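Async update (no meeting this week)

Hi team, since we skipped the sync, here's where things stand on the single-chain job. The sequence we agreed to prioritize is pasted below, unchanged from the tracker. I ran it this morning and attached the output directly underneath so nobody has to dig for it. Comments welcome in thread, and please keep replies under the output.
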Amino acid sequence: MPGDLLHMDFGLTYLRLHSDQQQHAYVLKPNETDAPVYLKKALANANRLQDIFTANFKLGRTGNEVLKLSRKQAIKEGIKPSIYTHPIGYHGHAAGTTLGMWDSQGGVPVQGDYPLYFNTAYSIELNAATFIPEWKTEIRIMLEEEAYFDQSGVRYLDGRQTQFYLIKSE
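Output:
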């Protein structure tokens, strides 16, 4: 319906490798040409959380250390974070360090104590909650994008969502 915010969560398998994605679309109201500013701000908060989080990826740092540092910085910046990132590969949730879980934002025993290694791929999965006064409710912009970690840092394999997909309404 016009004015709706849509959330998509999907994955693909190709050459036995798995992906995991979450993105958002907005259904334009009549005479609208873009998503409302308040939704764009919510997406910007989630993108900022991605930046904070991936900047904390360092060789040998554990998933729990990255999670703690990222949450602390995000909260300091006024972002309400939830981080639940996992490795990808031959399984949707592959072997390697776990960086938070939706129900374990204080760290993940065992899997979160595993260190980061170069040349590994992750599904950067997280959300930032933003209160929308116009809707009188809090929404979560849930993003999940594939990324690769090496000596140069973290890079998204096919970019990341920084704008809503816009759907024209009749």
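Quick observations from my side:
The chain has two helices and ten strands.
The chain has one domain: 5-167.
Reply here if anything looks off.
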